[in-house]
Amino acid sequence: MKLFHRLRPLVLGCLLPAAAALASLPAAAETIVMASTTSTEQSGLFAHLLPAFKKASGIDIKVVAQGTGQALDTGRRGDADVLFVHDQAAEEKFIAEGYGVKRYPVMYNDFVLIGPAADPAGVKGKDIVQALKKLSAANAEFISRGDKSGTHSAELRYWKEAGLDDKKGSGYRACGCGMGPALNMASSTGAYVLSDRGTWLSFKNRGKLAVLVEGDERLFNQYGVMVVNPAKHPHVKAAAAQKFVDWVISPAGQQTIASYKIDGQQLFFPNAKP
């Protein structure tokens, strides 16, 4: 006992500075999960956008990049706190079903039809519907995402408008993959493929591919952001997720989106509504 009393000041002298040092350490950053389309990840936008948000808020975001349909299903299961996707009809259905709090438009770009620069099917131009008719007639090689993504949904709309839901030609292939892998497949096989412009601009393995169809107003590609409804999933970090939404539609977030460029070309165009 006497030994303990003699050692006590020494023990306290060691423990108190250690405790003070621990108390001075910064608290671990809060982390939320965002389910998002592959185009926002593979285009490099999030590597540019999310560090700016963390600097402004102290909040980390873990991104689960998947097709928009899969991202919405992730939200329905409560496995994400916020969604950043691009299929407006599906997003509005998600909100109507009560899985999301509110949908906010945040930015846009466009889809483009990519294909061999030699364009053996002769699709080059502005009209996406006429281009698909030519691809079908020529049985041209076409790589579809086939993954219920926003890009895949848009592609299916265009085939429907062309009256070719079930007549896409013998060269039609669904890869069930993200935008980057689909572009790689098209590059290696000389196939046609529908892509969002952002991923195309950041794509390095272009080979002999080129943009063949662009400028059709039907190729407009709107992105939206939504907080998953905590009334459906009480564990959702709704307050932190809303901070991201509020920031990304604010002037600071919108300017950060606009400032992301590759080789001087802007990939996404902010259009949040105040």
Automatic annotation (TrEMBL):
InterPro entries: ABC-Tungstate_binding (IPR052738), PBP_domain (IPR024370). It comes from the Bacteria. Keywords: Signal. Residues 28-251 form the PBP domain. Residues 1-29 form the signal peptide. This is Tungstate transport system substrate-binding protein. It comes from Pigmentiphaga kullae.
